[in-house]
Amino acid sequence: MSIALLLDMAASNDPDRTAVVCGETHWTTARLRELTHGGAAVLTESRARSVAYVGTGGHLLPLLLFSCAGAALPFTPLNYRLGASALGGLIARLDAPLIVCDDEYHDTVASAVSDSVVAVVRSTDFRARAAAAEPAALDAAPDEVAVVLFTSGTTSAPKAVELTHHNLVSYITGTVDFASAAPDDAALVCVPPYHIAGVGAAMSHLYAGRKVVYLRSFDAAEWIAAARRESVTTATVVPTMLARIVAELEHTGATLPSLRTLAYGGSKVALPLLRKALRLLPDVGFVNAYGLTETSSTIAVLGPEEHRAALATDNPAVARRLGSVGTPVPGIELQIRDENGTVLPAGAPGELYVRGAQVSGRYTGIGSVLDPDGWFPTKDVAVLDTDGYLYVGGRSDDTIIRGGENIAPAEIEDVLVEHPQVREVAVIGVEDEQWGQIIVAVVVPDGDPDPEELRGFARAGLRGSRTPDKVVFRDALPATPTGKILRRELVDEYSRRPADSQTGA
């Protein structure tokens, strides 16, 4: 089954329903299908063997995603924020691509392409050609690659993840009920098109029967205005967006009267921010969605009732769940393993392994990294409690080894962020002759905290060996657009010069 069938089902079920809204563009499900069949014809005629897109997405994302499916070609949305050199390096790894780009990125793309590129087409031209073409579509095989996404490269060079039609269809049909949305349901999407959440949203909302409202660049005030203007009922944000939306709501007193569900993911949300958001929006159901590119998006969910129960309870075990990513979605199995591959019991930390039909675990040029039984090693350090709730503590590559003791940065960050003068914090390990590594807490302050007070605050909530050796201050933490902290940049910076806890130098 190809992902194109998801669009076919939606268009056949309700052809006149509005499927996509992006600025002045309004497409029904029938019009979207018609355009993608035209787009498939354009791509087939080009004789390209893959398609890449450089731009901010919006309506172009579903148009290209389903056009590529109809042409049986892999689709790769690329990070439009990259410079020509980095972009050219990724394009060179694609197989005879046709590049579609928004006007503002055309010059960058043109300077980045190599002889292997079949053509560079402006987004407006592709849309016009798709509208004029004689519709045509192929049936892609389930095991053919539908989407190739480059990982963010926060801990290593970006890898090209291959997601098949079977992987993506398994995710959608396993987590979304077809045509289950109410007639007035509308989803606001403002995540980058090159992120798995953007690709997943283009399919899942269509399959559920929601109108998708695209906001191509994020601004908190405009996000709130769009949510009110389009009577948005559900939205997905990353933590940095959530922080700015909360600040804007507090500052202006604006409300979100139609919003019923707010999903967040992409990186960890600090609990003080989450608690503030829950209290500010008491009628909104919050959903924490945890997933990876290699798993076709979400593999675990903490639902609205669980959020409210954890916020309201006096039971520490239930309250702790607010910091979890919930329980597995249907069709997903989880294991926690030690460094020798032994499956660990509940409560023991180790590496998270995932298995299910939506899990790819395959990279271009590398092949599959699944074990013989089909398990994917996520490289995330995690714990499963006795009730099946999953707690993710960060990447195994980020583990700090101080004096022979393994320390997860997340356990220190979770304590420090509760200090009233800490807005954000990232904990890293910096090489040290005596200890192997020392613990450095990089803090974005809210006010003027004393470094020794912060060290004492951490010591009171943790064992002494987990107290930061140094506390340094910054105006902001380097992060990806989805909010993942670029720890490598921090490690490189503070490894080049001594971390001075008093000056932040």
Account of the 3D structure:
The structure is a single chain. By secondary structure, the chain is α/β, with parallel strands linked by helices. Among the domains are: 165 residues, ANL, N-terminal domain (Rossmann fold), CATH 3.40.50; 67 residues, Luciferase, domain 3 (Roll); 98 residues, ANL, C-terminal domain (GMP Synthetase, Chain A, domain 3), CATH 3.30.300. It is built from 16 helices and 26 strands. Helix 2 crosses helix 3, helix 4 packs across helix 5 and helix 10 crosses helix 11. The longest helix is centred in the N-terminal third of the chain and has 18 residues. The termini are far apart. The C terminus is likely disordered.
Strand-helix topology:
Elements: H1 4-13, E1 18-22, E2 25-28, H2 29-46, E3 50-54, H3 60-70, E4 75-78, H4 84-91, E5 97-101, H5 106-112, E6 119-122, H6 123-132, E7 145-150, E8 160-164, H7 165-175, E9 186-189, H8 196-208, E10 211-214, H9 220-229, E11 234-237, H10 239-252, E12 261-264, H11 271-280, E13 285-292, E14 297-302, H12 304-312, H13 316-319, E15 327-328, E16 333-337, E17 350-355, E18 362-363, E19 367-368, E20 376-384, E21 390-395, E22 400-402, E23 405-407, H14 409-416, E24 422-432, E25 436-445, H15 451-461, E26 470-473, H16 487-496
Parallel strand pairs: 1-10, 3-4, 3-5, 5-6, 9-10, 9-11, 11-12, 12-13, 25-26
Antiparallel strand pairs: 1-2, 7-8, 13-14, 14-15, 16-17, 17-20, 18-19, 20-21, 22-23, 24-25
Helix pairs in contact: 1-2, 1-8, 2-3, 2-6, 4-5, 9-10, 10-11
What strand line-up does the widest sheet have? 2-1-10-9-11-12-13-14-15
Query: What is the architecture of the domain at 1-165 at the second tier of CATH?
Result: 3-Layer(aba) Sandwich
Low-pLDDT stretches = 499-505
Total number of strands: 26
Mean pLDDT across residues: 93
| Main beta sheet strand tally, sense and closure | 9 strands, mixed
Q: What is the number of helical segments per DSSP (H or I, 4+ residues)?
A: 16
Look at the helices and sheets and give the structural class.
Answer: alpha/beta
Approximately how much helix is present in the residues?
Answer: 25-40%
